[in-house]
Amino acid sequence: MAARAPVTAPPAAAPDSGAERGAPALAAIDRDTRLLENLFADVLAEQVGEAFRDELFTLRDRAAAWRRGDAEAGERLIAFLRDRSPAELEPFVRACAIQLHLANIAEELERLRRRRWHDRHSGRGQPESLAALAADTEHTPPSAVREALEQLEVVLVLTAHPTEAMRRSVFNHHQRVQELTEELDDPRVGASRRARLEAELREALTLWWQTDEIRRSRPLVEDEVRRNLMFFEAVLFDAVPELYRELSVRFGFPWPPERPVLRFGSWAGSDMDGNPAVDASTVTRTLELHRRLALRLLRRRVRELAARWSQADRRIKPSEELIASVERDERELAARIDHRNRGETLRRKLTLIGERLDRAARGEAGGYASPAELLADLELVHRNTGSSWVASGALARLMTQVRVFGFHIAALDLRQSAPALRAAVARHLPGFAELGEEGRQAAIAEAIAKLPEAALEPDPDDAVGLAFQAVAHGMREHGPEALGRIVISMVASPSDVLAALYLARRAGIGSKLPARPIVPLFETVDDLRQATATMEALYATPAYAEHLAALDREQEIMLGYSDSAKDGGFIASQWELYRVQELLVRSGDEHDVAIRFFHGRGGPGSRGGGRTHRAILAQPAHTVRGQIAITEQGEVISQRYSHAELAQRSLEQTVSAVLLASLKDDDQVPSRFRAEAERLASRSREVYRDLIGRPNFFRFMQQITPLDALADLNIGSRPASRPDGRRGLESLRAIPWVFAWMQNRLLLPSWYGAGTALAEGDDELHREMRERWPFFAALYSNLEMALYKADLGVAERYMALSDDGAELWEEIRAEYDRVTAALESISGGRGLLADSPALLARLEHRNPWTDPLSHMQVDLLGRVRSGEAAAKALLLQTITGIAAGMRNTG
After folding, report:
1. How does pLDDT run across 241-265, given as a tens digit for each residue?
2. DSSP 8-class letter at 309
3. pLDDT value at position 561?
4. Considering only CA atoms, which of 248, 267, 263 is closest in space to residue 154?
5. Strand pairing of 627-632 and 483-489?
6. Hey, how many other C-beta atoms are within 10 angstroms of the C-beta on 143?
7. Positive or negative, the Cα torsion across 659, 660, 661, 665?
8. Measuring CA to CA, how many Å separate 885 from each of 186, 330, 410, 836?
9. 634: left (phi over 0), alpha (psi -120 to 50) or beta
10. CB neighbours of 404 closer than 8 A, spacing ≥ 6?
């Protein structure tokens, strides 16, 4: 079959990749992709038949020819689809989707290959790594580096947002294929071993083929919790210590660390914002699942250590303190130690540590009451190793894991919307709902002052009050560190934040129990513009000032990328977020409040996505100050944390960027740059709002995207729209808004409005801004990425589903042409992504299998809307497949 290229042996590393001189050749992606395609073709020939296999590759080739302008190939493709029933099309959809996952595996292997090449050959380390940062700061005053390290605190929060379309079972098959493909890449593999690995790959691919791609029922909240925990268990628990070791090697950071500079949070199981499935019971259950995993992982590592450590007392001479500790433990636990270990005190101590962990997991007497108790025992062992090599090895990694993950893995944040909190307060304060803003502030302040010291029991039907009670219970049962923040979405006024404070105090949080950070999330453009005034009103409120004092006058503020972009368009959102950070930090300094920002980023550029390292460096000067919190959502979690080495790479990119942002000089942004950014934001927002404000726009969107099908796609436990009484576009959440435009390949929220704004400006000024201002460089980069991923040729196929959108489509096409021309003009005509050939290659190698899925999706949308019920399930499969191809679902 002509479509199947032969598999070739792995080539040696080429001298030049085009992006990083000396890095591996980009052609390796194509080689790995062909290998996986061919092995999967063998599976298809066995499972479905050779005729199907040949038709599949013919379908791919026709879609590719159509992309090149061959209209006849396009007509034949459409005729092929039209003549087949949903049942006949189903294996084509599934095969294309799996091919895209295989293309992604080839991409991940290429990233891994490049990382290892830099580790072997580059004296400076891979760009954006800690090694590269150490080289870049070689002449920086050591005191400045020490100060940055002392301030360093990075929190990565894994969310429960429904943006991951891959099932757990499919993920497991993905991991197995990735492992085998990576082993095949080893040049030491001989012919016989290679044949065996290829046979194992065919087996794994067959199991994958025989697994349903989509869930038959909507996942439960607990499923989302377990999915996030899976990444900790499989990858992050062991990858994180390597990051700390690298900090030690490059910057002299203590090893094992004395404090956790990188920590994790989670929203799965506790994000109540618009999700009726999340309540007090899911909060309680999630905390239990977190603790169970943490203790199991720690017990496993202790058991492994005890099995390996065989040091004899006569060789290491254990201290009297250690001997007394072992004897005390044996008496208290009545534990039987193998008589063969009597002369091995360290092994005996580790066995007893394991016993205490077992008892802690079972809730029995003698178990550790806190991670601090476990750490004290491990530190005692650490002092008795008799070797710096042993002390800095597996034991130091274990001590790092205890410091970072404790008995809770990730701190659980409680998230609820401001309207729900206001409604909860109104249950307790008669007439509250009818008050104006000043009246609400006064009423809450008075109510807080009158609260008794003891916690108050909520009403049995008060879901919000019960959730706060669950948080308080969790703090008592699992320790304060198991609970993170109280995040308030859609904050518009000070009383929204005071409402959370009041409900927390009713539950005993901040009185009987330690205060938890209350984090307002500012999302819309208008709310961002009012954020400084909102916070200053809170600083002046005695009850809130008391709350801040309990937190050492530290205030975390969350910035909403998704809703601000949905509200005002990409450029306006980015500029408002930039400006508000400057204003909030300045205001915080004036009120003696330390500000830390929590960035609510998603995968696509319109939701704050893009390269994390570049995004952090694009923040305004002196707004990072060594501290940052960032959400990790959906497909971003899978991409960054599915492989130990790639996870470490991602963590290094984030931490190195925070350090670099904290060390960089306070470069003043020229006033003409700021004036132009203001003009771009205002003009782009005007154009964007004009489009989405048209009376027929939402209907047009529903017609040319699979938005109506997303509610039936079982990728998350939350509904697609907020249950707040609003209708249409206003009620639609930002995630399905972006998801829908990703599916039809238009990516409209990521660029619309930017073309007119840029075209009306000065290219020379824009070039200067791109070269000198990290904020504008990041904005340009995200626009460039979105435009390259967008495909108007494919998107136009969806126009056949619209009955009156021709005028809107022409405006969209014209704006696309304007923004593309503007970016190319700024770059000097070099074309999109000309500076990133590695990224360009990764994006291009997905198109051959994404295009056929898009054409099938258009056909199936038409069938479903004409009443062909049998086509619906298959339509959902095209959605998950395209999500894999675009590597963004929302």
Report:
1. 999 999 999 999 999 999 999 999 9
2. -
3. 87
4. 263
5. unpaired
6. 8
7. positive
8. 27, 57, 30, 19
9. left
10. 240, 244, 260, 262, 263, 264
Nearest-angstrom CA–CA distance, 638 and 81? 32
Instruction: Show the tokens assigned to 620.
Output: 């305004």
Helix (H) or strand (E) holding 459: none
Boundaries of every domain in the chain: 1-123+168-211+836-890, 413-610, 671-835
Task: Output the pLDDT for position 482.
Answer: 97
In this structure, the number of other CB atoms found within 10 A of the CB of residue 845 comes to 19
Cα–Cα distance for residue pair 181/473, rounded to 1 Å = 47
pLDDT at residue 834 in the model: 78
Contacts of range 120-128, beta carbons closer than 8 Å, 24 or more positions apart: 121/22, 122/22, 126/649, 127/20, 128/613, 128/652, 128/653, 128/656, 128/657
Closest by CA position to 854, among listed 55, 60, 108: 60
pLDDT digits (tens, 9 = 90+) for 546-562: 999 999 999 999 999 88
Quick one: pLDDT at residue 18? 35
Q: Which residues of the chain have pLDDT under 50?
A: 1-22, 25, 162-165, 606, 714, 716-717, 889-890
CB crowding 531-557: b at 16 or more within 10 Å, else e: bbebbbbbbebebbeebbeebeeebbb
Q: What are phi and psi of 448, to 5 degrees?
A: -65, -40
Longest dimension (CA), the chain: 88
Burial pattern 300-324, b for ≥16 Cβ within 10 A else e, equals ebbbebbeebebeeeebebeeebee
Q: SS3 sequence, 344-383?
A: CHHHHHHHHHHHHHHHHHHCCCCCCCCHHHHHHHHHHHHC
The letter for the amino acid at 96 is: C
Q: Which residues are registered as beta bridge partners of 262?
A: 154
The encoded tokens of residue 55 equal: 């038709």
**714 three-class SS:** coil
- pLDDT given at position 17: 36
Per the CB < 8 A criterion, the answer to whether 858 and 864 are in contact is no
Instruction: Give the span between the Cα atoms of 419 and 173, in whole angstroms.
Output: 42
Q: Are 420 and 272 in contact (CB under 8 A)?
A: yes
Are 652 and 243 a contacting pair, CB within 8 Å?
Answer: yes
Catalytically active residues are 161, 566
Tokens of 163: 């943006």
Q: What is the model's pTM?
A: 0.91
Displacement of CA 775 from its chain's centroid (Å): 21
Helix, strand, coil % (nearest 5) of the chain?
65, 5, 30
CA–CA distance, 819 with 814 (Å, rounded to integer): 9
pLDDT at 846: 81
What token pair was written down for 695?
Answer: 């009376």
Under DSSP, the state recorded for 513 is B
Residue that the structure tokens 């006058």 belong to: 553
